[in-house]
From TrEMBL:
UniProt keyword list: Decarboxylase, Flavoprotein, FMN, Ligase, Lyase, Magnesium, Metal-binding, Multifunctional enzyme
Catalysed reactions, as listed in the record: (R)-4'-phosphopantothenate + L-cysteine + CTP = N-[(R)-4-phosphopantothenoyl]-L-cysteine + CMP + diphosphate + H(+); N-[(R)-4-phosphopantothenoyl]-L-cysteine + H(+) = (R)-4'-phosphopantetheine + CO2
Cofactor dependence: Mg(2+); FMN
Full-sequence portion shown in this chain: 175 to 396 of 397
Protein's name in the database: Coenzyme A biosynthesis bifunctional protein CoaBC
Cofactor note: Binds 1 FMN per subunit.
Residue span(s) of domain DNA/pantothenate metabolism flavoprotein C-terminal: 10-215
Length: 222
């Protein structure tokens, strides 16, 4: 179905989305990042716009075009992403956390380019705050949707994550089949149980996820 004819499940709702990887500086020219093209998060943003939502998209470094109608905030590090999310979250109805956030940052990044030598180079890494868990733990949180990319034990790890972060809905996918690809196969995990969406292009998967999110959101806010 053409974008303009999608049902307006989220008319007037404010949806905040994180997408893409984050990038943690090592020195002036180097950094640590995660494998993520941002395609899934941007597809979710387009699907939410089609569904009538007002969309704020907090994006890590990607080469993707801004979905028409989205308010886009570009960030680099996980800490920047946390700050952008915290600044936007108070008026949010639904938070969809698609970003592949770096779990660690470099403790003492160098302002100058580090010169190579023949020795082992040791980087000290410290844990980043969990943006999604912070938002879900707020006194009056938005409806929170998490993503989990796993390389093994997909459903078990996914459900553990959903419970640990106190999420009404988590989208789980097998990393080997998702990263960088144009299609995807995901499982939706919620209090009703687990169900699989058939393999499809990311934009179609995104529409199904947004539709399901809207359904659960309206169930929670009856
Ligand atoms: N997430 C986040 N902030 C972080 C880490 C993760 O907001 N610092 C979010 C992701 O956007 C995703 C969910 O938490 O929606 C799960 O991310 P994932 O990396 O799969 O889980 P982690 O809790 O980081 O556990 P691990 O990487 O060890 O599997
Ligand atoms: Ca992680």
């Amino acid at each position: 179905v053409e974008a303009a004819f999608q049902p307006k499940y989220l008319k007037g709702k404010k949806v905040l989305i994180t997408a893409g990887p984050t990038f943690e500086r090592i020195d002036a020219v180097r950094g640590i990042t995660n494998s993520s093209s941002g395609k899934m998060g941007f597809a979710i943003a387009r699907a939410a716009l089609e569904a009538g939502a007002e969309v704020t998209l907090v994006a890590g470094p990607t080469s993707l075009k801004t979905p028409v109608g989205a308010r886009r905030l570009d960030v680099e590090s996980s800490k920047d992403m946390l700050a952008a999310v915290n600044a936007a979250v108070s008026k949010t109805d639904i938070f969809i956390s698609v970003a592949a956030v770096a779990d660690y940052y470099v403790l003492n990044p160098s302002e100058q380019k580090i010169k190579k030598d023949a020795h082992i180079l040791t980087l000290e890494l410290a844990p980043n705050p969990d943006i999604l868990a912070n938002v879900a733990g707020l006194a009056d949180p938005p409806f929170c949707v998490g993503f989990a990319a796993e390389s093994e034990n997909l459903l078990e790890y996914g459900e553990q994550k959903r419970r640990r972060k106190k999420l009404p809905l988590l989208v789980a996918n097998q990393v080997q089949s998702a990263i960088g690809a144009d299609d995807n196969e995901v499982f939706l995990l919620d209090d009703h149980g687990q169900h699989k969406l058939p393999r499809a292009p990311k934009q179609e998967i995104a529409r199904a996820i947004v539709q399901y999110t809207a359904k659960l959101y309206h169930e929670y806010h009856k």
